[in-house]
């Protein structure tokens, strides 16, 4: 099982001191965080993609290429890559190039994006969100698997004799996850291609996540990729930890109360009860995260949101230390013990695919 | 005897409220109408006052807290809805609108809805026609032709040459709505995961 973090890349004022980092500081902090993720022994760093303030990550492959050069083993991923408003041809090229630079340590998560104006800014119609996601991905899938592509669709200019370069490294396209919170069409799409399904459950009750993952697993088996239990599932998580849980609650509350997503709404206590948010001791985080498995079954990737709501870099790095030293080693052991034979430990990523090919 | 599910949504804020009183009177009139057709009814009353904080939290977080989730589910799964609001600033109350804002836009499609409103003066009675009816028309509900408005004076009034008394209007609406409910089959909302939801493959 793989553990990592995903970042939204928000520039948010720290509510405890009123300080707002500059975009430059935020970008450099993001790199420091990614390096820390590798240093503490986690597996994955994923960045969001946004095209409006207060978010900085508009250029994910620039960021990930830079991080690739500064890390050895970290898997670079996205959360999410906008399959609706980006040209699928450019995604094919950019991420294949990144894959070569990172020696295969790349996968991506497709998403539609939920910021209305981004669609028209990029010449698209938000009402076509699902059809765009389906058609664009179908082209991307083909571009990574066929050397010469003739293609015609509704949303972009046709292609005749087009070759997307560079070709995926060793002929293995980057593994793809499809992220969706509530669209069954996207679970269906992930199942159809035998790709991974990521449910960003952090702002939702687990009962909802369970339904979406069940649908994906069922359809994965329907399309003949394996049993429902073998489908590739990823989940989000959101934690804040201190040795004493009271300290964690006291420190995190001002960030929670003012957070852009849920601030000025429910109490920290209610939100923690109704969603996976866990503010407490490392042991509480371990128990809560193991509990996700009860809802969705054995799964392959767990990403935590750690650097949002104005938390200063120093605090985020401390949190990553706790995550890497006290939480994830226990989770690795416990999840491995529970996972039955035949259920994949992780998504079929580049190194595993190459190793399997050598064996065969 | 067939049992139908009826949900009454009351947006009254005081306890007791005349909005709840009107909702209860309408409910009993519908019950009597259905009994006349040999049908039983299971009634659930949703007081939006009790859900005010969950409604605000849902607006902020994007998901319903458990009590609200359960109320939305009850409305969605019902055979008919009685929706009653006080008139605030020439329209339905903000709480009333917020509750219906949080219901899936498709959840009321084809569902019988009886609308009612209360106010201090009869001068606001057309709020039923210019505010509530379009709201439920947008949601593709079947809004009963007779809607009931109760001004404060109606609770002690005797009507006039042009207006029936409140009990007469309530009975008329209840009888009409009972017939509508009895003749409208419930639309199943269940999602079937055994068939594809997206047309794949794409060329």
Automatic annotation (TrEMBL), chain A:
<dbReference type="InterPro" id="IPR036661">
    <property type="entry name" value="Luciferase-like_sf"/>
</dbReference>
<dbReference type="InterPro" id="IPR023934">
    <property type="entry name" value="LLM_FMN-dep_put"/>
</dbReference>
<keyword id="KW-0560">Oxidoreductase</keyword>
<feature type="domain" description="Luciferase-like">
    <location>
        <begin position="1"/>
        <end position="297"/>
    </location>
</feature>
<dbReference type="InterPro" id="IPR050766">
    <property type="entry name" value="Bact_Lucif_Oxidored"/>
</dbReference>
<dbReference type="Pfam" id="PF00296">
    <property type="entry name" value="Bac_luciferase"/>
</dbReference>
<protein>
    <submittedName>
        <fullName>LLM class flavin-dependent oxidoreductase</fullName>
    </submittedName>
</protein>
<keyword id="KW-0503">Monooxygenase</keyword>
<dbReference type="InterPro" id="IPR011251">
    <property type="entry name" value="Luciferase-like_dom"/>
</dbReference>
From TrEMBL, chain B:
<keyword id="KW-0285">Flavoprotein</keyword>
<dbReference type="Pfam" id="PF03358">
    <property type="entry name" value="FMN_red"/>
</dbReference>
<dbReference type="InterPro" id="IPR023932">
    <property type="entry name" value="CE1759_FMN_reduct"/>
</dbReference>
<dbReference type="InterPro" id="IPR005025">
    <property type="entry name" value="FMN_Rdtase-like_dom"/>
</dbReference>
<keyword id="KW-0288">FMN</keyword>
<dbReference type="InterPro" id="IPR029039">
    <property type="entry name" value="Flavoprotein-like_sf"/>
</dbReference>
<dbReference type="InterPro" id="IPR051814">
    <property type="entry name" value="NAD(P)H-dep_FMN_reductase"/>
</dbReference>
<keyword id="KW-0560">Oxidoreductase</keyword>
<feature type="domain" description="NADPH-dependent FMN reductase-like">
    <location>
        <begin position="5"/>
        <end position="155"/>
    </location>
</feature>
<protein>
    <submittedName>
        <fullName>FMN reductase</fullName>
    </submittedName>
</protein>
């Amino acid at each position: 099982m793989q553990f990592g973090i995903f970042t939204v890349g928000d520039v948010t004022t720290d509510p405890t001191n009123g300080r707002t980092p500059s975009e430059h500081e935020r970008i450099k902090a993001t790199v420091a965080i990614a390096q820390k993720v590798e240093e503490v022994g986690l597996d994955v760093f994923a960045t969001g993609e946004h095209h409006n303030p207060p978010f900085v990550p508009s250029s994910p492959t620039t960021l990930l290429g830079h991080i690739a050069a500064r890390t050895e083993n970290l898997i670079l991923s996205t959360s999410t890559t906008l399959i609706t408003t980006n040209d699928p041809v450019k995604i094919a090229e950019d991420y294949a190039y990144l894959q070569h630079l990172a020696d295969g340590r790349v996968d991506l998560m497709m998403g539609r994006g939920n910021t209305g104006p981004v669609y028209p800014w990029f010449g698209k119609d938000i009402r076509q969100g699902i059809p765009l996601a389906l058609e664009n991905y179908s082209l991307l899938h083909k571009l990574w698997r066929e050397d010469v592509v003739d293609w015609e669709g509704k949303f972009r200019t046709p292609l005749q004799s087009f070759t997307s370069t560079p070709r995926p490294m060793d002929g293995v396209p980057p593994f793809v996850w499809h992220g969706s919170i509530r669209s069954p069409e996207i679970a269906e799409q992930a199942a159809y291609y035998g790709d991974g399904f990521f449910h960003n459950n952090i702002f939702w009750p687990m009962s909802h996540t369970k339904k979406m993952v069940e649908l994906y697993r069922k359809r994965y088996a329907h399309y003949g990729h394996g049993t429902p239990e073998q489908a590739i599932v990823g989940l989000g998580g959101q934690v804040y930890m201190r040795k004493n849980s009271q300290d964690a609650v006291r420190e995190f509350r001002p960030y929670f109360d003012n957070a852009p997503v849920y601030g000025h709404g429910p109490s920290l206590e209610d939100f923690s009860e109704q969603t996976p948010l866990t503010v407490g001791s490392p042991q509480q985080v371990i128990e809560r995260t193991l509990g996700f498995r009860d809802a969705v079954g054995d799964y392959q990737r767990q990403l935590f949101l750690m650097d949002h709501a104005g938390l200063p870099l120093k605090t985020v790095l401390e949190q990553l230390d706790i995550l890497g030293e006290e939480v994830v080693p226990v989770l690795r052991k416990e999840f491995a013990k529970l996972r039955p034979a035949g259920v994949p430990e992780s998504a079929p990523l580049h190194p595993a695919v190459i190793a399997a090919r050598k064996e065969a | 005897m067939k049992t139908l599910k009826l949900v009454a949504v009351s947006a009254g804020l005081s306890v007791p409220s005349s909005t709840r009183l009107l909702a209860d009177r309408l409910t009993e009139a519908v019950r009597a109408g259905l009994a006349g057709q040999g049908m039983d009814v299971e009634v659930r009353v949703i007081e939006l006052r009790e859900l005010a904080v969950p409604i605000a939290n849902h607006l902020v977080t994007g998901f319903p807290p458990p009590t609200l989730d359960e109320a939305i589910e009850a409305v969605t799964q019902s055979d008919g809805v009685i929706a009653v609001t006080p008139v605030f600033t020439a329209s339905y109350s903000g709480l009333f609108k917020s509750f219906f804002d949080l219901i899936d836009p498709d959840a009321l499609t084809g569902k019988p809805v009886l609308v009612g409103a209360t106010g201090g003066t009869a001068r606001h009675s057309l709020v039923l026609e210019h505010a509530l009816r379009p709201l439920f028309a947008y949601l593709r509900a079947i809004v009963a032709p007779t809607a009931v408005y109760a001004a404060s004076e109606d609770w002690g009034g005797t009507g006039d040459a042009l207006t029936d008394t409140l009990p007469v209007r309530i009975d008329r609406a209840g009888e009409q709505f009972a017939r509508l409910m009895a003749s409208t089959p419930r639309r199943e909302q269940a999602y079937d995961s055994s068939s594809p939801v997206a047309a794949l493959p794409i060329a």
